[in-house]
Amino acid sequence: TVLRERPVVDTHATMATLFAYAMAFSSAYLAGGQRLSQGIAKVRGSRLIAPVQSNGVFVELPPSIQSKLREKGWRFYTFLGDTGCRLMCAWDTTAETVDRFTADLAAAASG
Question: What pTM did the predictor assign?
Answer without folding.
Answer: 0.74
